[in-house]
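Example record

The entry below shows one chain as it appears in the dataset: sequence first, then structure tokens.
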Amino acid sequence: MSAVFLHVGQCGNQIGKAFWKKTLQDKAVHEGHTFIHPDGKQRSVHVDSEPKVVQKACKGLKIRDGNIVSGKRGRGTNWALGYHGLKKSGEDHILEDTANQVRKEIERCDMYSGCIMMHSLTGGTGSGLGSRLCEAMREEYPMNHLISCTVAPCLTGESPLQNYNALLTLSYLQRNTDCVVLTYNDDVLGKLQRKMESVSFDAMNTSIASALGGVFLPTDTMTPKRWSIPANRYHDTKKYQFGSIGNVGNVVIARGDSTETFYPQMTQGLEKKFRKSFNTVSWNPFPLDIWTAKTNSIGPKDTASITVASNSESIVEYLETVYERSRVKFAAKAYLHWYNKYGVTNEDFEEAFGVVEDIIQNYKSAFS
């Protein structure tokens, strides 16, 4: 089975570059052809509203001709402009061209399993065009999985539109994707600042790519019959103190397990300790799954790593922040004309508020 990767906007492409550098080093990836075609080309499509960033991010990668799609003008950190496009300027071709290249990549798959999209939660292209592409992929391929790997900006971000953009994007992801893997820039930055004096964007992108690679790259053992994904399907890489945050489900992936001892140790006693430390809900009979791989391609040679993907209530804090800040601005009618100008109505905002509020309430009820 094969997956197609879709990298959207500056954030999606920069993380994608770091991700593919690690992916191309994984021997199992080349042997299995899940992510790479037998001819050596990546099963990926890269899109941005401006050519400079996407061309730089794709340099050195094994991307098929035509799978880099770009426009000539940015989307001004505006979800509405990213979603509806610049039809008067003749740049509405980006959506059509991207969909066409994705279709061609899917047709090259021997058995297409689904799409993994990497993008920003708030950038104009990553959020707006990303939402539109999710919608289009769901309509065109309703039976195949669709996973969004999205990055939330720092809460003290510079854009006055970031909470509006996040609100609208989250509502579209909830309606159209099967799973959302959410990474917080604040957490990535905090983690790196404890290790180095000056943190670069490259370092942050590499850190995020390593976490995603830890989850998505091939493993030697999998037990999917025990993996449970609840209705809201949000997983995050937020750092928190285990035991203080409730979890619906978790998957632990150990890489570099050359002696093949991690899985037996987990099943012989460590699993109970992991369950307790994760503070899992009582109603899920299988809240923890364990995957292993002999090699660790996401880190230096001859090293080991453990990646944890957790569906936890920590998401509620971020969702409530986005909801409340957007509500305050919406009540004051702040910046709404920027969205109305490109086709987003007040009713669209109200619908988004309703979807995000439902996510919050569903998570709270899951842990009550």
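Notes for this example: The CA atoms of residues 253 and 307 lie 5 Å apart. The first strand starts at residue 2 and ends at 8.
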